[in-house]
Write a structure and sequence with these properties.
globular
Length: about 190
């Protein structure tokens, strides 16, 4: 292999990485393209902010993780309502795309129920899967797909998976540089 072809492969890979990074950023901006999404996104954002910085600054508790399980349940119900509206308003037939979106809604509903049940049964996994950062990320990434703003394709899912650590660490750094809430100072 020549140096030029290796350089071409590297540049192609970097170009693709940049493309899916921009796709990932567009997922966060998706509600501005479809304002109806704000009805579910705003409560997710508000809940995430208060829970992340005032409740889970040092991790989650069983009780908090259980309540975090309710959020995916509510989001999946909203997604199902939206998909039902799409089917009934436009007289659209059930396509594979809409069917997969219904499956995603059911999967997120099952995830929320699992988080609640695991918390009630005091399973240690709850400290990971019930953390608001995970819950919020899943909901923020899937909502634009359900509302048909972001495509249901491999590129979207790659962007979500590849850049999750970036999301995690940006929030973690912000979490560490923001001051401790008074409740933590009073408990110490």
């Amino acid at each position: 292999m020549t140096t030029i072809s290796v350089l071409g492969i590297i540049l192609s890979a970097l170009s693709y990485l940049l493309d899916i990074f921009l796709l990932w950023l567009s997922i966060f901006a998706a509600p501005f393209k479809e304002p109806e999404m704000f009805w579910i996104i705003i409560p997710i954002w508000i809940n995430w902010f208060f829970t992340e910085f005032f409740v889970e600054k040092h991790g989650t508790s069983f009780g908090n993780a259980i309540s975090n399980g309710a959020i995916p349940i509510l989001a999946s119900l909203d997604w199902t309502r939206h998909l039902y509206d799409v089917l009934s308003e436009s007289a659209t037939k059930l396509t594979i795309d809409i069917f997969v979106k219904f499956v995603l809604s059911v999967a997120v509903l099952a995830y929320g129920i699992f988080v609640i049940v695991a918390g009630i049964m005091i399973k240690r996994i709850i400290f990971y899967i019930g953390r608001i950062r995970w819950v919020t990320y899943v909901l923020l990434m899937i909502t634009p797909i359900i509302y048909n703003v972001i495509g249901l394709d491999i590129h979207s899912f790659l962007a979500m998976i590849i850049f999750f650590p970036l999301y995690w660490w940006v929030i973690e750094i912000f979490d560490r540089v923001t001051p401790e809430p008074r409740v933590y100072q009073e408990d110490s």
